[in-house]
Each structure stands twice: as C-alpha cells, then as structure tokens.
C-alpha cells in the first residue's frame, strides 16, 4: 500500500488568526504554505482580502496567491488540480506543506477526496454552487438562477436551496445530477496523512476582530484599491468583484450606497460569512480545535508545534 502524503491544515473563520499562525509554523518547520482562500487568487485584490504582505510572509513561500486576473473565474475543481500537485511536489522535497484554509469546501473536499473529473462534472458544478453560497450567501445563487431561468426562480424560495441548485444543474448540464461521493464517505479515511488545526474564538470576540479588521481596511485606503480596479475595467458582475467588501465599496463608488451603510454592510456580511464557515467546519469531525482566546499567542504556537511534531513523529 502506498504511503500517504503528509499535510498540515490550519483553518478557522475569517479574522480568527490563521495567517500569522500558518506563517510562524511554516518558519519553524521550514516548509511552504498553500492558500485555501478563494479570493487570494486574484491579483490586485489585496486590502479587502487581508492578503498577507511580502513583509508578513517573512520569506515563507506561498502558493495559489496572485495567480489570476480579476476577470477570470476560479472554482473548487481548479483548486483541487493545483493543490494536489503542490502537495505532491512539496512532499517530494521532504517538507510537510501547510494548507491555510478559509474556504471550507476547498479544504473539506480536498482532504476527503471528492472526485472532480470529466465523468463527474455534475459534482464539480454542484460543489461550485455550494462554494458560492458559502462565500456569498444563498441569495447570490438564487440570483444566478433568476438570470438563466426567471420562471423557475420565481417559483423557488431562496431557502429551498437544494432545488435551486438542481434547477441550475439542469440548465447547466441538460441532465440530472449524480450524487456526490468521496473517499472519506466510502472508507472513513482522509486522502492525506493530515493534521488539521482549527482555530476558534468566543463569538463576540471574533465579531469584534472582524469589525476592527474592516475599520483597518478602510484606514488602509481600501476605497482606492476598489476604485483602481474599476478604473482598470473591473465589472461588478465578475466573480472577483462579488467578494465581500468589493461589492459594497463598488456600490458606494457607483452612487448606489452611502459610505457608512457600505461599511456596515461589509461588517455584517463578513460576520455572516464567519457563521457559514463555522457551519462548514462542523461537518469535519477530524479537526483538532484550539481556543485562541484562552491561550496567549506564544502558548498557542508552542502547543501547535508540539502537537504537529507528535502527530508526525519524524518531524524535527
């Protein structure tokens, strides 16, 4: 039997503190980071995505960041193709890659072994829709149906999510979808020899961090970033511009929303996104959780390093 490739995952809701922990852990283990965030792939989308700066990266090599132009689309199948190759290549060097995850579906489907190939295109499209709903909300997916099949959209409530997805699948593929299965569902085993670190915080503390992050983004000239993107031709209907923060500031710049409302909407949408992320993680019983409120950062880092070394007994 082939020995499984090794993988460390650091996940948790937005603003919980994943970026710093993943970079500091990577420095100690002398390894590389694979981003599992669906918005970090876009060039020029920096402030609103809290993309780590070159200074913050501290010389640690990062992958799947700044790989696409704003007009390009990216989905879970694309992520799989790139991430699986990187995990293999980094393992060949004797390092254990760190996947820093923010998009729950990306991480879950990768470690559980969802299949995305020509014969299961239905599954890939369904997962893409679920990913969009997780990132942007169910209304976003319902609006997609409204564009291609307004009659069906009028009949289906936004919360009747499975039927909304089915209607989009039928339009997209012209046939019924195939039920999704994964290696984990079949065998109870993850694809990789995986140690998964989950960071959590008390809800109000997390929400306070989210609100503060948005305030810092605004202080760091986020409006100018969005304006530059739009001046360079970015359209509000592009997948990239549907990201939280970008859509609200674009609405402000287009005169459809005043600034105070736009900032409040950013905070609210980010809090809702964090709740949806936590819901995703509840579907992943193999996560080892750490309470970032109860540990100092130094103790958290030390504990995670020790636990990683214990899990992978050959790690120095």
TrEMBL record:
Summarize where substrate binds, as residue positions: 14-19
- So where does ATP get bound? 12-19
Indicate the annotated site residue(s) for Interaction with substrate tRNA: 103, 126
**A single GO BP annotation from the record?**
tRNA modification
For this UniProt record, the keywords arranged alphabetically read as follows: ATP-binding, Magnesium, Nucleotide-binding, Transferase, tRNA processing
Q: Which Pfam families match?
A: IPPT
Question: A Gene Ontology MF term for this entry?
Answer: tRNA dimethylallyltransferase activity
Q: Which InterPro entries match?
A: Dimethylallyltransferase, IPT, P-loop_NTPase
Q: Which EC number applies?
A: 2.5.1.75
Residue ranges of the region described as Interaction with substrate tRNA = 37-40
**Which EC class does it fall in?**
transferase
Obligatory cofactor(s): Mg(2+)
What reaction does this catalyse?
Answer: adenosine(37) in tRNA + dimethylallyl diphosphate = N(6)-dimethylallyladenosine(37) in tRNA + diphosphate
What binding partners and quaternary form does the record give? Monomer.
Which HAMAP family does this entry report, sorted A to Z? IPP_trans
Q: Which family does it belong to?
A: Belongs to the IPP transferase family.
Job description of the protein: Catalyzes the transfer of a dimethylallyl group onto the adenine at position 37 in tRNAs that read codons beginning with uridine, leading to the formation of N6-(dimethylallyl)adenosine (i(6)A).
**What is the name listed in the Swiss-Prot or TrEMBL entry for this protein?**
tRNA dimethylallyltransferase
């Amino acid at each position: 039997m082939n020995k499984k490739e090794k993988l460390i995952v650091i996940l948790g809701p937005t603003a919980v503190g994943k970026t710093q922990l993943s970079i500091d852990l990577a420095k100690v283990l002398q390894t590389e980071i694979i981003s599992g965030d669906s918005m970090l792939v876009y060039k020029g989308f920096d402030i609103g995505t809290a993309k780590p700066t070159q200074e913050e990266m501290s010389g640690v090599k990062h992958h799947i960041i700044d790989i696409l132009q704003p007009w390009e689309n990216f989905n879970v199948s694309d992520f799989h193709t790139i991430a699986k190759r990187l995990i293999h290549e980094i393992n060949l060097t004797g390092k254990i890659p760190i996947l820093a995850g923010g998009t729950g579906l990306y991480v879950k489907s990768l470690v559980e072994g969802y299949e995305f190939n020509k014969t299961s295109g239905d599954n890939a499209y369904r997962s893409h829709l679920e990913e969009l709903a997780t990132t942007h909300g169910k209304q976003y997916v319902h609006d997609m149906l409204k564009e291609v099949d307004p009659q069906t959209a009028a009949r289906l409530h936004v919360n009747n999510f499975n039927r909304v997805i089915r209607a989009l699948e039928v339009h997209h593929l012209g046939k019924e979808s195939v039920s999704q299965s994964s290696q984990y569902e079949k065998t109870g085993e993850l694809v990789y020899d995986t140690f998964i670190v989950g960071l959590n915080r008390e809800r109000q503390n997390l929400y306070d961090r989210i609100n503060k992050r948005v305030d810092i983004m605004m202080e760091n000239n986020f409006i100018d970033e969005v304006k530059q993107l739009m001046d360079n031709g970015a359209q509000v209907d592009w997948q990239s511009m549907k990201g939280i923060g970008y859509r609200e500031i674009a609405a402000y710049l287009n005169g459809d929303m005043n600034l105070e409302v736009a900032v409040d909407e950013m905070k609210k949408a980010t809090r809702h996104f964090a709740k949806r992320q936590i819901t995703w993680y509840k579907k992943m019983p193999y996560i080892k959780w750490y309470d970032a409120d109860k540990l100092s950062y130094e103790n958290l880092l030390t504990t995670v390093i020790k636990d990683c070394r214990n899990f992978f007994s050959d790690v120095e």
